[in-house]
Structures are given as C-alpha cells and as structure tokens.
Amino acid sequence: MSEKEVDEHSGVETTGHEWDGIKELNNPLPRWWLIVFWVSVIWSIGYWIFMPAWPGITGYTKGIRNHSERENVAVAIEALDAARADDTRRLIAAPSMEAIENDPDLLQFAMAAGGSLFGDNCATCHGAGGQGFKGYPNLNDDVWLWGGSLEEIKDTITVGRRSEHPETTNTLMMAYGRDGLLPRDDITALVDYVRMLSGQDYDAEAASRAAPIYATQCIACHGANGRGDKTQGAPDLTDAIWLYGGDRRSIYDTIWNGRAGVMPAWEGRLSEEEIIALSVYVHALGGGE
Questions:
Q1: Same domain, yes or no: 192 and 245
Q2: 278: which of 28, 65, 130, 243 is 20 to 30 A away, CA to CA?
Q3: What does pTM read for this prediction?
Q4: pLDDT-based confidence at 2, cuts 50/70/90?
Q5: Closest Cα to residue 255, out of 188, 189, 182, 176?
Q6: pLDDT digits (tens, 9 = 90+) for 148-202
Q7: What is the CATH number of the domain that holds 271?
Q8: Closest listed residue to residue 203, CA positions, set 195, 212, 211
Q9: Is there a contact between 255 and 190 (Cβ–Cβ < 8 Å)?
Q10: Where are any strands of DSSP class E within 1-151?
Q11: 173 in a domain, yes or no?
C-alpha cells in the first residue's frame, strides 16, 4: 500500500487528483459545517417521529403529535365565523342599506368584508381600486349605467346584467352596421351626432343629416337629449365618460358592431350577507348616487 502524498507547502494530504499540474488537497470540512449537518440530521429524525412526514399509498404517517394544519385551519375558520356571527345577523337584519352606512360598527364590518370579497371576485375586471378598464366600468366615479344607489348596486351584483339569471336585464346596443340595420354613411353621420352631444369636434352637416336617424333609431334608449336611461343601461352620451372609448373610431365601432357586455350574477355564488357587504363597499368607492 502506497503512502498518501502530502503537499509540501500546506502539509495537507492530496486526494490524488491532478489537473494541469494543480493537485487537489484533501482538506477536512469546517467543524461548524459538520456540527450544523449532524444537528440537522438529528432534527429531521425527530421531525419524522413527531410530525406528519412520509406519504403512503392511501395516506401519510401522522406522527405521534397527530398534527394537521388542515384541521387547524378549519377550527380557525369556525372560530372566525362564530366571532362574526353577530355582525352577520345584524347585516342581514338591517332595515335598509342606508341603515348599515349609518351604523359605524356595522359599516366597518361591511367595508372589511366587502373589500376582501372585491379583491377575490371583482378586481380582475374592475381593477384592484375599482378604476375599471376599457369595457369594464369605473366604480370610482358617480356615473352608473344601471343606477348607483345601494339597492341598485345590490341588484346589479345579485342578478347581473345580460347574465344567465332569470331576473337579469338583457337590453343591449344593437349592431347597426354588422347586422345591416343602417348603411355605412348613416353610421358615419351618427358618429358626428354623438360627438356633438358630448361636446366634441364634429361635422355640422353630418350631424344635421343624422338627427332624424337618431330620432328613429337611438332616442328610445338614449333619450331625445342623449342623457341615457338607467333602467335600460343606456349610457349618457352628453358627458365625457366612455366605457368603450369616445374617439371617432371607438364610437363608430360601437354603432357598427354593437355592445353587449356581461356582468355575471353573484346570487348563488355569494351568500346574502356577502352581497350586502360587497354592495356597501362598491357604493363607498365612488360615493354612489
């Protein structure tokens, strides 16, 4: 058996590996590292014994503590529901939505619950702060397609708009160009008429030509003065708030292709008290009406 080679400069044995004249030293691991390693090994053995650790075919090892985070979460949820039970009963029993807003404690509860529900269910479309996006209403302003009172907001959340709920509303903006209801020239003229109503630059001759077209095709929903009708979800054409855009191209696309945005119904997916809390929260975002 040959003697192990010792490096003459460091006095440390070599491993016998050499590359390009450089020999690998067989330095021992640092003592602190070895201590941490063996403590970790001992700790892991103890963990395997006391805590759930090893998966099996039909389950897993429970450990002598029989610990379960799933059961702990269930117990915590039950305790939280019990603590909220009184506020939940008061929320449902409130004589009106306004009564909730006039009760500081109940309002605080509704806002906390509603904010959480909004983040989980509404923020994807309306934005985390309710600011909305193109095609999705801004909930921070005082402009409401279907009404912004507490009861109207609650109704919108409950049955939706153009949803599958049997009590929903299904009015929509017709596709005047796509479905051949109006020729292209008439739609182009209507764009100028709408821009006139909203105080934008417009072609006076085209708007004048579009007046009788507006009277026969649009007045039933948007009104003679263009102020809209919340019972039908028809937007006000005289303000600067545009769900799909107020530039010439966007208005043309709206008239040509129509609009039929869907607000899903949350009845059945959210409980009664959750819908009430969410309504209060949405109402508070923009001050409602």
A1: yes
A2: 243
A3: 0.72
A4: low
A5: 176
A6: 999 999 999 999 999 999 999 999 999 999 999 999 999 999 999 999 999 999 9
A7: 1.10.760.10
A8: 195
A9: yes
A10: 14-19, 22-25
A11: no
Q: Which residue in 177, 200, 193 sits closest to 255, CA to CA?
A: 177
Contacts of 50 (CB under 8 A, 6+ apart): 63, 64, 65, 67
Query: What does the alpha-carbon distance between residue 208 and residue 190 come to, in Å, rounded to a whole number?
Result: 9
Question: pLDDT tens digit string along 118-151?
Answer: 999 999 999 999 999 999 999 998 899 999 999 9
One domain for residues 275 and 239 = no
Task: Kindly state whether residues 79 and 100 are assigned to the same domain.
Answer: no
Position 241 in a domain: yes
* Phi, psi for residue 6 in degrees, rounded to 5: -115, 130
| Domains in the chain, number | 3
141 and 270 co-located in one domain: yes
**Structural domain includes residue 178:** no
pLDDT-wise least confident of 13-22, 155-164, 273-282: 13-22
- Asked if 251 and 194 count as a contact pair (C-beta separation under 8 A), the reply is yes
Task: Indicate the residue type of 234.
Answer: A
Cβ(163)–Cβ(265) under 8 Å? yes
Q: Do residues 100 and 89 both lie within one domain? A: no
User: Phi first, then psi: what are they for 283, rounded to 5°?
Assistant: -60, -40
Token reading at 69: 């985070």
Structure tokens at 147: 């009404």
